Amino acid sequence: MHFRSLVASGLAGVVVICATACGGTSRTADVKAAELPRAMSRSVSSDGCRGVSVGPARAMVDTATAKRLGLDIWPDTALGVIRDGDDRYRFLSTGTPGGRPPQQVIVTSGTLSDPVAGGVVSERPVTNVPAGYDYAGGGPIYRDPASGLVLEMLHLERPYADDPGQFYTELHLGRFDPATGSVTRLGAIVSPHASFELAGRSKTTIDIGVSSLSVVTAGSTKYLYVYFPDASADASGKIAFSGLSVARAPLDDVLSAAKNGQVTGWSKYANGGWEQPGLGGASSDLTPGQPMAWHPDVARDESVSIMVAGVSPREMVLADSADGVTGWSAQHPLFRDTAYYDAYPTVVGSGSDPAHPGSAFFVYYTQWQSSSPDWSKARLMRRSVTCTEGLTAAKVPFVRYSDGTRHQVTTGPVAGAGYHEEARWNLLTAQTPGTIPLYGCLNGAADYYVSTDAGCGGTQYSILQTEGWIYTDPPEAPSTALYRCYIRSLGDHFVSTRSDCEAPGNPDVAPEGRLGYALT
Hints:
The protein is mainly beta. It is built from four helices and 34 strands. 5% of the residues lie in helices and 45% in strands.
């Protein structure tokens, strides 16, 4: 995908998230078959995903493996995931073998922990693409359980004739053949409210991403929903983007048309109704006052829609809505990276249907190990996300480490060699009355610290993971107060049971307040 669109659409880069500890050291988790807790079999509460816990980043396909398999400029869209049974899956995304267009829909086979374990299954360009488009790729899918028909969301780009460095995007629907890997474009379903001609005159790139396909029941009808940041123009021709817009079509109509090689009409949601056409119609902003959702991925559980999206060059967030249209929750920060460049989140459930997230799911995303997109440094990453509300909380060790100079305090893996344990306490693994979450954070390359703020105190800091939950007041169980401390001369944080940070009267050691009460 072309990344020049990001600045033009109001993002100075793409969603970037602190996947691993930045600056050369890293925190990564071991591969475990049971990485997700028992919440995976539970549906998300109708109240939404509450008590959000985010695990550390893990590389699913590293740069060397992708290169060995010939996965060039991959994955360049969010993923389409097909479960073939047991632990076997197929993963669809866009790549450009050899770096030479046309783009190909690349299918790999593997497991949720190793999406390329079975290698590359197929590489096929999208067929039936009209003249005038210079990019056609796809990834996210919907598989009809009754017929087995697989629909794929396609992202098409049209350059402006007088300024080919800028372009205009549309959402098209394709049909994927699981037997051959071929993808046939069926037709356009969503285009921005601002027309191609108007956008071209203003020389504004309009990138509405590549949406997921989620099924939502409204009344007695099942619909397919797609989400995107819409673009419109004011009287002067200036382009503005919505934070999040949605279009839909009746599922039965979509499937019937697809079987005949066509698309049905889609409608955008605007001003409380669905009268606006998907192609060129106006739309309402579903999340007014919140940052624009770039390449949003929305997955539908039984009674709630969960969105993961990038909102700035450094951050991905989660939000939810009961009906997938109104009442979206405030955006909850999931993770942030100040050194790497990340994009294309995909929400994947680990149950029988990967399209249904459940209360514990994975978020896959593309990461460049650089401050801007560099395909020679690309890899596929994954995070676990758990909605812990309603889960029975267990204790998890919260350990203070030191290498003799610097500290790390975490419930997860320690970054770098030479660290030894100095002390340990216990946090809880789930939201419990009387507790608040602690977050693992990173300032620069080596100052690891914990915070009670989900944003780690500012967008200049990386959000690494959710460490666990700590009591705000002494519980009945044995506990101790924990305080955050800072060594000014070293730029190093640590945690102590002493309010004087083990250095009474030392001006170089600054107490930064009580975090809470940890179990002992």
